Amino acid sequence: MLSLEGVTKTYRVGAFGTSTLTAVDDVSLDLAPGEVVSLIGESGSGKTTLGKTVLGLLSPTKGRITLDGERARPGKAYYRHVQGVFQDPFSCYNPVFKADRVLTMIRNEYFPGVADSEWQGRIETSLSDVGLDPGQILGRYPHQLSGGQLQRLLIARALLLDLRYLVADEITSMLDASTRIDVLNLLADLKARGLGVLFVTHDLSLGNYISERAVVLYRGRVVESGSTAAVFGNPLHPYTIRLLSSVPRLTSRWGGEEDTASAEVPEPDDRKGASTLVEAEPGHLVRRTGGDTDAGTASLRSAR
Ligand SMILES: Nc1ncnc2c1ncn2[C@@H]1O[C@H](COP(=O)(O)OP(=O)(O)OP(=O)(O)O)[C@@H](O)[C@H]1O
């Protein structure tokens, strides 16, 4: 189990770093093998900061991350099991090196003693696991491959390790619609084989498509979490309701009667007074604040 316990990340900002910005505030969540948890929130809500903290690229200001009960220590042993794939596959490759160099780096770092023939076999298996034809990938430069192929190659690279958890941060946002669905289906296959995925997205429909649990982040705090069916089917926090209201429907047109994207919805203020996550129904947590009222939630609902 990969667990986050009260993780907080504060950045120093302003001239000379004199002030602070809390990007992630007391977040706790568990990710089990074979489970996809989506971390949903608008731009600036702290998703990437949280993902980088899980990957040890940032250290938490407070709280801790554990892998099977042991405090996570970024290093070879941790990265054997926990890896990340990010939004922009092009920036992950050096344009002057052939794309398969990312695979060679894994060999040099983790498996220097493995014989050439065995390594070749492992590469072929990991590429075919992500639906890539080695003949079409190996020996090519990044600019000769599509975004979808590069993203799959990064996942294949992770599969060369004894991968158990993947942080997938907006990995489909730079892909076209049909490639996006291919990559999502690939994640679903890997999940079926026991991989735990933290699926970071601002796109509610993707979160709904792929995950069984959803965690909604607002200004660095979890405001609602639970099964995806509960969070999407019966959203309780004003922010979740507002997010769901802002998804344009295929049948609605801007400014039309069914236009929910431009509906005026009051800004929920989570910083008002003390707030806690309460269990509204089994497994479905919602943050209740001094500023929240049932009447406010009801008026937001009616705007959907
Ligand atoms: N290195 C940094 N130094 C200072 N502030 C930062 C830094 N990185 C992120 N922030 C701030 O932390 C907050 C959360 O940023 P983060 O990138 O984690 O959000 P996000 O939800 O991933 O947004 P997006 O979807 O736009 O990537 C934002 O207010 C951002 O400006």
UniProtKB/TrEMBL annotation:
Recorded superkingdom: Bacteria
GO-annotated molecular function: ATP binding
Keyword ATP-binding: yes
Keyword DNA damage: no
Domain ABC transporter, chain residue ranges per copy: 2-244
SMART domains, A to Z: AAA
Keyword line: ATP-binding, Nucleotide-binding, Transport
PANTHER family to which the protein is assigned, alphabetical: ABC-TYPE DIPEPTIDE/OLIGOPEPTIDE TRANSPORT SYSTEM, ATPASE COMPONENT, ABC-TYPE DIPEPTIDE_OLIGOPEPTIDE TRANSPORT SYSTEM, ATPASE COMPONENT
Protein name: ABC transporter ATP-binding protein
